[in-house]
Design a protein that fits this description.
- It contains 10 helices and 9 strands.
- The protein is α/β, with parallel strands linked by helices.
- The longest helix has 15 residues.
- It starts with a helix and ends with a strand.
- The structure holds S-adenosylmethionine.
- The site of S-adenosylmethionine has 24 residues, from helix 5, strand 4 and helix 8.
């Protein structure tokens, strides 16, 4: 499938339309062969095409930014369902990378006002590039664990979403991930939850009473992350949700007091 997608990329067509082609110019064949070599050397498909699909979006990606994953689409869907009845919800995406979550919310709920926070000065250039043309999304350079982050929004936010770095230090990763996703997007300390601890404090401060938090996590954190949220205090309705493959994938909670 990757080979077909790369050939379609070279020819400027779709994978399905390849069926109607019966010749390829020499220069396209050479470009295709070079891309195949890079893919065989574990360069991510999305870095070779420069694009990553995410719900109804096609995001620009490349070296320096985390490639958005299909499983994160469900967290975006959860957030969109929760804000469906609010005309102008205030939403914050902590650790925005390509802008996937922030932009999906803004695109699918036109009244939403979304703030996308990213700490990495290289990654945020991709956030800005993808957010251009989405005036409802404000991109902010900042640390999601910083007590001074977005203090102007304290107690006003309807939904905080985050797909933070959550890989436990030392975990084995495929070469596509280990060599091409930025380290800041991946590593989360000994249990993978270091950044999440700070993010919980920030989310508790930003959310209005009754506001909602959704955090993506690793397969192995489906018990540990809900337990961490419960032990932090001030959260109700703490639940964990599986992805489409049935693996524990994100935790949600409601802010019960300020
Ligand atoms: C796993 S990636 C997710 C990116 C995007 N939200 C997505 O779902 O595809 C985590 C992102 O959080 C950013 N990040 C890591 N630590 C951060 C921090 N303390 N404050 C803000 N952003 C942070 C990383 O640079 C990276 O872009």
């Amino acid at each position: 499938m990757d080979a077909e997608l790369l050939l379609a990329h070279v020819l400027g067509t779709t994978r399905t339309a390849l069926l109607t082609r019966d010749d390829v110019r020499d220069e396209d064949a050479a470009r295709f062969a070079a891309l195949l070599d890079q893919r065989a050397d574990r360069v991510p498909l999305q870095h070779l095409t420069g694009r990553a699909p995410f719900r109804h979006l096609e995001l620009a990606v490349g070296p320096g930014v985390f490639v958005p994953r299909p499983e994160t689409e469900q967290l975006a869907g959860w957030a969109l369902e929760r804000i469906a009845g609010i005309a102008e919800p205030v939403v914050v995406d902590l650790g925005s990378g390509s802008g996937a979550l922030a932009l999906a919310v803004a695109q699918e709920h036109p009244g939403a006002r979304v703030t996308a926070v990213e700490r990495d000065p290289v990654a945020i250039e991709w956030t800005r590039r993808n957010a251009a043309g989405h005036p409802a999304v404000e991109v902010v350079l900042g640390d999601m664990t910083d007590p001074a982050l977005l203090t102007g929004l304290d107690g006003t936010v309807d939904v905080v979403v985050s797909n933070p770095p959550y890989v436990p230090d030392g975990a084995g990763l495929p070469r596509e991930v280990a060599e091409h996703d930025p380290p800041l997007a991946l590593w989360g300390g000994h249990d993978g939850l270091d950044v999440v601890r700070g993010l919980l404090t920030t989310a508790a401060r930003l959310l209005r009473p009754g506001g909602l938090l959704g955090i993506e996590h690793a397969d192995q954190q489906g018990t540990a992350l809900p337990a961490l949220v419960r032990s932090a205090g001030g959260w109700a309705d703490v639940e964990d949700h599986p992805d489409l493959a049935g693996r524990p994938r994100y935790t949600t909670a409601r802010r019960s007091r300020g």
